[in-house]
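Incident log, structure service

09:12 report received: a user says their structure output differs between two submissions of the same chain.
09:20 pulled the input from the user's history:
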Amino acid sequence: MAGVLNGIRVLDLSWGIAGPMATMLLADHGAEVIKIEPPGGDPFRFQLGYKVWQRGKKSAVFDLKDPAERAQFDALVETADVLVESYAPRTAEKLGVTAERLRALNPRLIFCSITGYGRDNAHADRPAYDALVQARTGLMWEQRGWPEGALNHLAGRPDPFPDLEIPDDWLQGAPRPGPLFVASHWPSLGACFNAVLGISAALRARELTGRGQTVETSLLQGALAGAAGVWQRAENIDAPGFDSWILGSRSPKGHFQCKDGRWIHNWVPNPRFILQASAGATLNATPDLTVQNDPDRFGTGPEEILVMAHYQPILAEAVKKFTAQEWTEAAAIAEVTMQPVRSLEESLNDPLFLQDGCVIETQDPELGRIRTVGQTYRLSACPNTIDPRTPAVGEHTAQVKAAAARAVPAARSRSAGGRNLATPLDGITVLDLGLAIAGPFGTQLLSDLGARVIKINGLYDLFWHRVHIAYMANRGKQSITLNLKDPRAMEIFLKLVERADVVHHNMRYDAAERLKIDYESLKKIKPDLIYCHTRGFETGARSRLPGNDQTGACLSGIQYEDGGMARGGKPLWSFTSFGDTGNGFLSAIAVIQALYHRDRTGQGQFVDTSIINAALLNTSYAVARADGRPVPRPQIDGLQYGYSAGHRIYPTKQGWLCLLLLTQEHWDALCAVLGVPELVRDPRFADADARSRNDAALAAILEERFMRAAAAEWFAPLDAAGVPVEIVSEDFSRKLHDDPEFRKRRWVVSYPHPVVGKLDQIGLLVDLSDTPGVIQGRPLVVGEHTQELLRGLGYDDEQIKMLEEQMAIGFAGPPRMPPRPAAAQAGAPKPGMAGMLEKEAARK
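09:34 re-ran on a clean worker, output below:
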C-alpha cells in the first residue's frame, strides 16, 4: 500500500496554498515529503488548510541564511528526486534555492518552481496572493461573467439583448453590479494541478532519459487554467452553433429555492422534468422525458436567453412546491442532473463520501476527530494509504539532517535511462472516448505533453463539438467517427486498442461494460494497457447518476462557500471552476503516474477519479468535526465583497480595488495614504483582534474613503507605500492574447480554424526545460481523420466507402468558414424571438 511514488524523495520549500497542496498529493501516493521550514516555522501555518495539506510529511528546520546549514541542506538535495519551492524569484536567489545551483549538485533533480506570475515579465514582481491575482487578471469579473457573454466580451461586441429585463432574483451572484470575491482559491488550485502534472511528467521522462529538469508554473498560469473556457477569442463567433448563452451573467443557471428554503441546482435546466414532475400534489419521479424535438428543452444558442426568461418564474414556482430532498430523490430516479446545495460541513459528513474514501476521518491533536478530503485518484496496481498525521515544526530535523549526512547521493546511486524524448509523452498513444469536458480535458492535457490522442467520436457528435465550450477540451487530437454498436466499427476500435497505450473515458461504466470496452475486456487484448475511467460522483449509490461540474460544486460545498451563503448569500457556480477540468487534471496525473509505473515494471492498470474528488480537493482549505460541528474559519460575506475590511474588494469613484492586508505595517501604510492616520490610534482598530470585532464599522469607513477617487488614483500611492493592492482589471482578458511575452512562452496560442477563423486559446500551463510541452494543433472537426486512420489500419478506399455508406463510420472534411450572417452585425434585429414564440406555441 506504499503508492506509485514509493521511493521518491521530495523536498518541500513551498508555502501558502499551491505548493503545500501539490506536495500533499505526492505524499498521498507514496512519496517521502520533507517540509523544509525556516527558523520559527512556515509563517502560513495559521491556515486551517495546513491541517490537510501538510499530512504525511516530515518537518525539518533549516536556516538557509547560515552557511553551515545551507551546506547540510545541499547534502540533502543530493539525495532528493524532487524539490518544490514557491519563493519570490529574488528571495530564492538570495537563499541559493535556484534550479541552476541545485541541479548542478544533483543532475537528476526535478526542480519545481511555483511563482506568482512567472519570471521576467511585466507582472513578475507583483504580490502573489490569490485574491490579488484574481483581481489583477480580472478573474473576479469572470465568476458570473459579462452581460454580453464571454465570446462577445473578448470580441469587443455588445450585449445582443440589451433591452431584455432580467430580475436579479433570477440570476446567480450578489444582487449588485461589479466583480465578485469568491472563497475558492482558483489561481492556487490551478497552479497545484499544473505543478503535479509537470512533476509527474518530468518523473516519467527521467525514467527514460536519466535526466532531471526544471518545472515551472505560476498562480497566473493557474488562473489561465481556470479561465480556459471563458478566455477563448474567435474571429467568427457567429459560426452556426458556436456561441451560447451559458457563459453570460444575464442567463439563469438553474438554481431554485425549494419549499424548505434550501437550494437545488438543475444543470442544464430541464423544464419538462420540473413542470411534469411537479404537476400533482406529490412529485412524479417518472415523467415522460422521451419526447423527440422537445419544445421545452433549452438549446445552446444565445437567443435561448429569451426562452429562459419566459420559463424562469414558472420553474421557480413549480420547484417551491416541494422540498430539496424530495426533488433530489425524484431527480435520482429520473436520472436528471439535480443536486442540493450543501455546506462544506454537510459535504464532509456525507456517509457515502466516507464509504468511498474521498473523505477520511482522522484525529487532530487540537480539534479532535475531524473529516477532510481523502483519496483524489486511485491506481489499481499501486494502491496507497493516506497518512493523515501533520508534523510539528521541526519534528524531524535531527532525523533528516542525520540521514542527509550519511546518504548516498541520488545522482550516483541510480542509473541513467539514456533515451532522448522530445516531449514527456513522446510515443504514447491515447484513445479518448470522453464526453463533454471532464473526460476530454484530461486527454487534451496529455496531448499538450506530447501524446498522440485519437478522439473516438460518435456519428452524432457534431452538435456538441460545434459549441465553443467543446473547443476548450479538444485541441491537438485526431478524430475518427465510429458507430461502436456496429461490429465492424468495434473491430476498428479494437485494432486501435492493440496499438494504444491508454484508453480514457468518462461514460458510465455500465455502458462501457455493455459495449465490452471495459477494462477487463480490453486488457485481454492489450495486457499492459493503462485504462482511465472518471465519474461524476464517488463510487457507490450515486455513481450511476449523471454528474457534472455543477453537481460536484453543489455536493462539495463550493457553491455554498463561493456564494457567501453562511452570511446571507445565494449559491454561485463559478465560470472558472475546477470540477470538470479538475477531474481532467487528476485523470491526466493518474495516467502519467501509471505510465511511469509501467516503464519500471511493464505492468498496465486501471486508474480512476471523479468530479467530486476534484471538488473536495478545492474545498480542502477547511475541515469539519466528525459530529458535524463547523471549525471556525473566515467566510465571505453574502454580497461577495470578501472576508473582512482588510481582505476584500472596494468600489471606487471609477473601478474597483482589491486589498489584502496581512500585517500592522500594511494597515499603518493604508491609513496614511487614505489620509486617516487617526484610525491607527482608534482603539476600535488598534490591532488585529480589535479590527475583527469592529470589522463592519471599519469597512464602512474605508468604503466611504475609496469612493472619493478612482481606483487608478488610489493604486499608485498605495502600491508605492507597500500596501498589497491591485485594481480589479476589466480588460486583462481582452489584452491577454496580444501579449507578446505570453505568446512567446506559449501561455496563449493561436491557429486558423476552418469553422471560426482565427482562434486564440489558453496554451501551455506548465513549462518543462528538458522535455517541453507542445501544442499539436487546433480543436478537432468531428471525423476529419477517419480516412487517414483507417488507411493506417490497412483499409482501402472501397472498404472505407462501404463502411461509410452503411453508417458503421462517418467522416467529415474540414468545412469552410461560413460568412458572418448579416443578422449578427451591430444594430441588427435581435435573433431568437420568433424561435421562442414557436416553442411556446408548440408547448401549448
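09:41 both user submissions now match this output. Likely a transient worker issue. Closing.
09:42 reviewer note: Residues 165 and 431 are 46 Å apart (CA to CA). The two ends are 61 Å apart (CA to CA).
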